[in-house]
Amino acid sequence: MARVFSGIQPSGVITLGNYLGALQHFVARQYEHEAFYCIVDLHALTLPKDPAVLREQVKILAAVYLAAGIDPQRATLFVQSQVPEHSELAWLLQCMSYLGELSRMVQFKEKAEGKDSVAVGLYTYPVLQAADILLYDTSLVPVGEDQRQHIELCRDIALRFNQRFGDVFVVPEHQVAKLGARIMSLDEPTKKMSKSNPVPASYISLLDTPEQIQKKIMRAVTDVGSEIKYDPEHKPGVSNLLVINSLSSGRSMAVLEEIFAGRGYGDLKKDTASVVIAVLEPIRREVYNILQSTDLDAVLAEGAAKARAVASVTLRRVQEAMGVR
Ligand code: TYM
């Protein structure tokens, strides 16, 4: 059975973009494959973090995973820092990665832009991500569009390693959905919806109340003209709402264009708010239930033990290949 691996950073809130572009696919994949899903707290350290806040966000993200439908009996859910093999493999892979290729990472350039000093960890971040994936002999990595370049780098590192040391790693493929892999910001629909955006109206959080969701969608920036059609280049605002609507309601783009033919942007927004609320409200309620009723530490400890059993075997193989064991 093919292995699936993916991760989400416990930094800030989890957005509708994370859900539609990644998390909902994680849920689907757990029924088809052996799945490992990670809360990547070590990645979150690449930007300054308050320790108490980080701990809290790890718990909330664990609850979000479960509330969205990840079943710890099917998928292995764990926290990255509880499996030390991730850090260790990351070092070994850093010795197989080049300054040039890391400098080309768009996400590094975006996150480092305008900062006086940038942590080295922000630069080597994609190598830790490669370690995450390669430790589990992963074949499929479901991600949003913004992670495509990181997965390609992971493939390059794995291929380079195998060429030098023999067939040690499974070379993974990314799985980027055709629709919804890049949900855009509500206030600037030419930019990605991001949890690190300081403007809360730009994103929908999985923990937003129905009233907040309604307000944010009704205020979403739309485009000139009045026609409702899917045309991301010329109508980025309307197209983003159509994508969100389609993925939340299960109706195809063609059906939505027919439903909204001759109607105004206000109608599209109202309908989109209602279908998004129908998807997110049960998740939000379930997150709070889980935070009160579930022993998340126990779930995560069990996940870490299962993850370690696999990761330690791969790490040993790598160490032996490189001559450090
Ligand atoms: P992160 O935490 O930024 O995002 C988690 C997942 O959500 C997707 N995503 C989106 N999809 C659609 N539209 C958006 N606006 C949107 N914003 C985010 C991301 O593409 C991602 O799939 N480095 C990774 C975490 C990571 C990881 C890994 C992923 C660490 N190790 C190994 C896969 C495999 C990150 O920061 O994702």
User: How would you write the strand order of the largest sheet?
Assistant: 1-2-3
CATH superfamily of the largest domain: HUPs
Beta content comes to: 5-15%
Instruction: Provide a count of the helices.
Output: 13
Report on this structure.
The chain has 325 residues and is mainly alpha-helical. The chain folds into two domains: 3-176 and 295-322, HUPs (Rossmann fold), CATH 3.40.50; 200-288, Tyrosyl-Transfer RNA Synthetase. 54% of the residues lie in helices and 7% in strands. The chain has 13 helices and five strands. It has helices at 16-29, 41-44, 51-68, 85-94, 99-103, 106-112, 120-134, 148-165, 210-218, 236-249, 253-259, 265-293, 296-322, and strands at residues 3-8, 34-39, 76-79, 140-142, 173-175. A three-stranded parallel sheet has the order 1-2-3. Helix 1 (16-29) links the parallel strand 1 and strand 2 (34-39). Helix 3 packs across helix 12. The radius of gyration is 20 Å and the shape is globular. The two termini are 30 Å apart. Residues 5-9, 17-18, 21-22, 40, 43, 129, 132-133, 141, 143-144, 146-147, 181-183, 192-193 line the site of tryptophanyl-5'AMP (TYM). Tryptophanyl-5'AMP is lined by residues 5-9, 17-18, 21-22, 40, 43, 129, 132-133, 141, 143-144, 146-147, 181-183, 192-193.
Summarize the structure.
The chain is mainly α. It has helices at residues 16-29, 41-44, 51-68, 85-94, 99-103, 106-112, 120-134, 148-165, 210-218, 236-249, 253-259, 265-293, 296-322, and strands at 3-8, 34-39, 76-79, 140-142, 173-175.
